[in-house]
Amino acid sequence: MRHATADAEAEAPGGRATVGRGRRGEIVRAAVTVLGRAGCADTSMKEIAHQAGVAPGLLHYYFSSKEELLVAAVGHLQEQMTATWTAAVAGCDEPLERLIAGLDAVAARFGQEPQLWRAGLDLSLLGLSDPAIRARCRELRGDIVQAIEVELRGALGRLPAYTLVPPRDLAGAVASGIDGMALAALVEERDPTAAFRALKVMLLSLVVAAHVTAGQEPPVARLANLLRPR
Fold first, then answer.
1. Domains of the chain with bracketed CATH
2. 131-156 and 193-213 helices cross at what angle (nearest 10)?
3. Low-confidence residues of the chain, pLDDT below 50?
């Protein structure tokens, strides 16, 4: 019944303009859901249409090809990850707290929706042979790295840690660590909470080393507090 309604909307005068953005968004979200469940290789336009509750032919009005839809799916993942990080750090003023809050939010999001990470990792691998998808995945990674770098600069900006590791490189390593932990958790079918905690310990250890290098007393008590479950 919903398929018939969707066809009517597409055929009615002005109907496409009215439902266009909303319907397109539903299709993209359906694509991410199917990708997270089945992977790129086993995802078909027909299955995406079924997930979205629309007629298969309607997909080709909004997307000329499966590749175009997958590129849009990467964009949706980009929005989701950015929103997760932004919301997590919004209520924090202290840079280290912001960084830990962001990592905790990412870990929690993975626990709630691991299929988002499967979709993202699968699309990244597909991007190795598809320039359009690779370019979109590069944007996604760039946004994540930039968000992490902002917090690292705030946390280490007045300490001599930059002489050891440039903040952009460190942010890239953290982002790669997140991807690696997500992949390991998916392959091993386990909770990545302990791995995220280990990443936080490593980052806070760098803060300690930076203070020591600067001849300052590390704020050990405050750093230990950041590692407590929230």
1. 2-64 (1.10.10), 67-226 (1.10.357)
2. 50
3. 1-13, 15, 17-18
